[in-house]
């Protein structure tokens, strides 16, 4: 039996061992949902950056650039952080450089893991099957919000804990708590998460369609993982 644990914020990642583990980075609203949408709709690869400046410089190298801070597209960037912007396949074959408020920081802080996967509800089942086919223990790294716990990433972590019950033992309190929370509330993702602070922030920006997409289960059969160069690609 392998093990599964949860890190609830990038600020706490130093408390967890990364070596030898699969780390699933999750930022449901919206970075990792957007990454899965982009790859599923033809984007060739995504290079994540923690900072705006290095990301923006990639435009000179022919990259499409996506940059967001506090829910708003960063000045000078072509794309923000909206998953629905990728759904028509308009950016098929392009390489995307991307930086967001929370999600790309969490990816950066996951370096050192055996594998880094990108978690989202629209490819939950595919990600579960992939993890079950590997021998490694699992760490679910929630991006949270500016260092704080958030409900949507933690509920996704609970969904993974429940789906992996037959292969991965949850021993620490966080994983047990989130498994129970998903068991109780997972049938009503949208209703339950409408009270989440980040969902309210996004509603204020008038982007309910993003929330709907981010909470849709199993639209895609792809798995997104970091390759040896640090690019996010289809596994
Ligand atoms: O664009 C988002 O959804 C957020 C911005 S914020 O947390 O509302 O400031 O970025 P993300 O990195 O996807 O959490």
Automatic annotation (TrEMBL):
Entry EC number(s): 3.1.3.71
Cofactors: Mg(2+)
Keywords: Hydrolase, Magnesium
EC class name: hydrolase
Catalytic activity, as annotated: (2R)-O-phospho-3-sulfolactate + H2O = (2R)-3-sulfolactate + phosphate
Record SUPFAM superfamilies: ComB-like
Matching InterPro entries: ComB-like, ComB-like_sf
A family per Pfam: 2-ph_phosp
Family: Belongs to the ComB family.
Protein name according to UniProt: Probable 2-phosphosulfolactate phosphatase
Organism from which the protein derives: Algoriphagus jejuensis
